[in-house]
Amino acid sequence: MGEDRGRWSVVDAGNAVRSLQLNAPQGGPDDLPLLITGAASAINATEIVVYLADYTQSLLVPLLGAGLDRDEQPIETTLAGRAFTTLDVQRAPDNPDRIWVPLLLGCERMGVLEVVTPAAADPATEGPAWEVAVTVAQILVNRRLYGDVVERMRRRLPMQVAAEIVWGLLPPLTFATDDMVVTAILEPCYDVGGDIFDYALNGDVLSIGLFDTCGHGIKASTLASLVVSAYRNARRCGLDLVDTAISIDRWVRSEHPNLFATGLLAELDRTTGRLRMINAGHPGAMLLRDGKAIRELPGPTALPLGLGHLSGRRPRVHVEDLHPGDRILAYTDGITDARSLEGERFGLERLVDFVNRALNDGLPSPETMRRLVRAVVAYQNDELDDDATAVFLEWRPPHTPLAHLRDLSALTTRSP
After folding, report:
1. Residues near 180 by Cβ (< 8 Å), separated by ≥ 6?
2. Which of 154, 187, 212 is the last residue of a domain?
3. Which of 173, 180, 106 has the alpha carbon at shortest distance from 328?
4. Would the pLDDT of 265 be above 80?
């Protein structure tokens, strides 16, 4: 057993990683399954299969090459799905020749890696499997831009042009450092138009923008494109929070004089926990502490973006000093306004109850968001009348004892 551990951790994983890194630039995205399978023998495996999460994060879809045959794996009911949701390696008691490894790029959950090997029962296989999974994730992100195979396989339904515009503008759904996590979710995946979000970390300041434009379809997505681009431009020009809101407001009024967008613009100083926020006609954000939603942050401090000329006042900034471990949940009205078949709203109380239970279960933040949006979609019988978007921010200074929280960023440097 000791010799097997040495062969895996010292030689074989390195050979597989080098093979993947050296050969990936020589092919296109369609060659990735063959490339990844070809590296299997270097880690004493017979097969390596990539499964990517579909856009709704309800299925894991196999990226197959010639000679491989696999079925989709439901995230809710399979070991592959459990690896995705828990971020832990999973083994099948009745199928001891394979393990399921989370496929992560930094903290962004992409899917899982199935490794078929006679050494699957040996715990020493986990380290090399993690190394290969990290390399595969990097290659997938780097190569998928050159073709459509990855995008096509992740789509279970045709995507509308309005949704194509929005998804093309979004940052990764999850980002984490050792002292904070920001994660978001967006539905309906194939027909969104008006909701959009963005974030950026510059030095010690994390900037977050969540916007909900009026209307639906192409007009809404076009306005969303302008809003997020104006937000990024103002931020990159070094404007402060108030002038950023004013700049977006002017661009909306200039290019779409009969339309508007609600928005939350926030800045978190990750060294002090000071949160500064402008609420431009948007639903309020929830402050969560010690596993409970303690209160709603103040409502609008400015008119919706595009209507600022109706007031002579500059946007007002709300300041909140967070406690270590605090979380902020921001959302669009598509979350709370979702209605059951009986016409009952999902509502703020049900939203708070859901998040409280998820926090008490100790779920990773991205999994909390995934389950929340699945619950909202199910509540409305899989037919959302409006975009449903939520952004979850967690501030956790490294010196704070939060043993029950998973440090997502540590997974990027997990040791074999």
Report:
1. 206, 268, 270, 393, 394, 395, 396
2. 154
3. 180
4. yes
Looking at 154, 182, 202, the residue that finishes a domain is: 154
**Percent of the chain surpassing pLDDT 70:** 93
Q: Does residue 337 lie within any of the structural domains?
A: yes
- Residue-number span of the structural domain to which 251 is assigned: 161-411
Other beta carbons less than 10 A from residue 108's beta carbon = 18
Q: How far apart are the first and last CA of the chain?
A: 16
Count of domains for the chain: 2
Q: Name residues whose C-beta falls within 8 Å of residue 333's C-beta, 6 or more positions apart in sequence.
A: 212, 283, 386
Which residues, 6+ apart, have CB-to-CB distance to 223 below 8 Å?
Answer: 194, 213, 214, 215, 252, 256, 259, 261
Is the domain of 132 the same as that of 193? no
77 lies in the same domain as 178? no
Cα angle for residues 169, 303, 171 (degrees, 5° grid): 15
Q: What is the pTM of this model?
A: 0.87
Structure tokens at 201: 């970390």
pLDDT in tens, 165-217: 999 999 999 999 999 999 999 988 888 778 999 999 999 999 999 999 988 88
Residue 235 C-beta-side C-alpha neighbours within 13 Å: 20
User: What is the SS3 string spanning the chain?
Assistant: CHHHHHHHHHHHHHHHHHHHHHHHHHCCHHHHHHHHHHCHHHHCCCEEEEEEECCCCCEEEEECCCCCCCCCEECCCCHHHHHHHHCCCEEECCEEEEEEEEEEECCEEEEEEEEECCCCCCHHHHHHHHHHHHHHHHHHHHHHHHCCHHHHHHCCCCCCHHHHHHHHHCCCCEEEECCEEEEEEEECCCCCCCEEEEEEEECCEEEEEEEEECCCHHHHHHHHHHHHHHHHHHHHCCCCHHHHHHHHHHHHHHHCCCCCEEEEEEEEECCCCEEEEEEECCCCCEEEECCEEEEECCCCCECCECCHHHCCCCCCCEEEECCCCCEEEEECHHHHCCECCCCCECHHHHHHHHHHHHHHCCCCHHHHHHHHHHHHHHHCCCCCCCCEEEEEEEECCCCCCCCCCCCHHHHHHCCC
